[in-house]
Input
Amino acid sequence: MAGYILRRLLATIPVLVIVAVLVFLMLRLTPGDPAAVIAGDNATTEQIALIRNRLGLDQPILAQFAIWAGNLMQGNLGESFFFKKPIGELIIGRIEPTLSLAFATMLIAISVAIPLGVLAAYKHGSWIDRVVMGFSVMGFSVPVFVIGYALIYVFAITLGWFPVQGYQPLSGGFGGFLHRLVLPAVTLSVIYIALIARMTRASVLEVLSEDYIRTARAKGQVERKILFRHALKNAAVPIVTVVGIGIALLIGGVVVTESVFSIPGLGRLTVDAVLARDYPTIQAVILLFSGVYVGINLMIDLAYSLFDPRIRY
Amino acid sequence: MSNTQTPVLEIAGLSIALPGGGDRARAVDDVSLSVAAGEIVCVVGESGSGKSVTAFSVMGLLAKALKPVAGAIKLEGEDLLTASPQRLRALRGDRMAMIFQEPMTALNPVLTIGDQIEEVLRIHTDLGPTERRAQVLAMLESMRLPEPERMHASYPHQISGGQRQRVMIAAALILDPALLIADEPTTALDVTTQAQILRLIKDMQSRRGTGVLFITHDFGVVAEIADRVVVMEKGRVVEQGPAADILLRPQHPYTQMLIAAVPSLKPADRKPALGPLALETVGLAKTYSSKALFAKERVVHAAKDVAIRVRRGETVGIVGESGSGKTTVARCVARLMPPSEGAILVPDIDIAPLTERRLRPYRRKIQVVFQDPFRSLNPRRTVGASIVEGPMNFGLSASDALQRARDLMGLVGLQPNSLERYPHQFSGGQRQRIAIARALAMEPEILIADEAVSALDVSVQRQVLALLADVQERFNLAILFITHDLRVAAQICDRIVVMEKGVIVEQGATSQVFSAPAHAYTRALIEAAPGRNFATGTAAADAVPA
Output
């Protein structure tokens, strides 16, 4: 197992190198001059040239890449053009809100979706099944920002239960932290509830027709234990896959949600960096995200062997 | 029955309705039978006879669409049809238990063996963890499973099929139920394993006085194990009585037909085939290796040094248990997979090393009929389209191909105008006829039948075997007949090749292999054939399609 993890970790290096090269090229080859953006509308040509020189943008592309990659190796992500701060610091400052939001979202999604999916599979074809599936279609179809604003309207403006926007760091007290996290997390979780519930239903439904479910009934086992002890664990592999993909997609999802709820997280950082053509920051964030993707994929694979003893590495 | 006590199981006038649209109104119609303590009652019948539905209705495990509409099922005097779901749950696993056909799938793959047996104790008793564990280990021991401690911690995929069925039996018998229902428990097993499991069931039930309701389609098994026999046809009981009476003096025509259709283990007299050589393999081998980036290579020899010869007009059987390599050989000969080593001569060109493009002209000469007629025909194409596809690939015009398909449908005993129908509109036996017609449409010289009759009921099996014999004679075919069933092999094969673990251990004329088996494995196979002392049946070649 340890050997397998090591091999998988080594295998991520080429992936990350390719991502790094692509990210670097993509941004250099898109039109628009960051030096001009930074200098502002009233800058002279000399000022722009000066900025370009200071940022190393006047060097050949290969040299730029070499400098950037060299710094990266030393853990130096560079300095943001726009925020004028080391990017490492920027990211660390923004990571807590994003992680909190992602964690809360997945917690809500999993704890709601899996029981719903199992129930829908068990009551296959009944009104419960149809309601769950109907909700699921709705969850897929309504955009995140619509759900966000609808929830804000109902629970923040009309009922006044939750604040409209904003984020409070965990260090400022758990109650306030949670209070401000609930609406954005619920908003973001809707689509994952839909996704995971659907997958759980399909997967459990398939497992329920297996012979060993019949064997469990023949032993006199009660239905609840048949569902959660015998069926769910067997149905876990596809569910884990979807949860993993969900977590990865979540990172994309937080961009919108953080904007709607004004949360100063990585999503906001990305948006701001893109709008400001802040190359180093964009590169760093994309690299970070791909690292997270690769890490999550590894964890999904390891989770398989946790649920299914036939999978061994 | 001399038993005056309450029978363990009494089914009286049981009828179970089928949902509308079926071929009959009732899955089970007015069925009455009983099982006494310590007695093994075999329910025999072909697929669709209602024998499994009867068994599942006792356990209360019927699909929701099937509803008992009349009659009573009494377990030790207690009516099960009127019992509450809670009461049924309490009885299942405790007073009545069941084992199933597929030990591969009947155990939960993600729970340990020990856990799954213990589950019965957790549900029905208040025993603590240590006592439960001790009891499970003792049970594993009495099932003659090796290393009970290790077995306890194993997962189902880590043990063999026979061991899994032993585990199922252990879980079923651990609370000493009054009734054990066994639904084709040995059908999916190899003969030698089957013999052991049958012995184990018999042993356990006589020691514990369990009543056993044993569902089977196999008269060999019946002869081996039954005290009494119940014969079912289309949902009705047509005959029941003591095993000896039913086996030796069957009264009902259906029973007589069933018993007559069982191929005899005594080889049929066959003239030696003297046609020209059609197929020869020399040193044929298939090796699988799994290589991971940094892991050690694992090599499996699925077949090794296989040398067989088949003449035109001759049927050569390859017999062996699962994992013996018989199907691997068939697939290599048909070049459905490339062999790792050796030559395949048809009869003078070696097709083993040919590229797909150079191989194509020879594809036509070797055709295969597969085991499962439910999966070997494309469900979304008409059978006509399936039959004409091959010849048209080899340049026959559409109209000629269709004419050939029509002729062949007549030849295999089906209506030529049913070419427009889809596979699901045919029965299993009819589909296998279609599969044979499809193979013949290519005008092959060599026909490979890979367990081609194994999935069929005996009566249908007999017809398909007769058809194979007929087309062999008509087209002077060389047939390579892959089977695990010695009875079938005895009736249809001129020569027999016995394979074990990828190598040929013995080959020779059928009569010689059966009368004087040279290798210990062959002797073990013949010895294990269920009901070997139950001499009946007729030669398949004499049989006429009904």
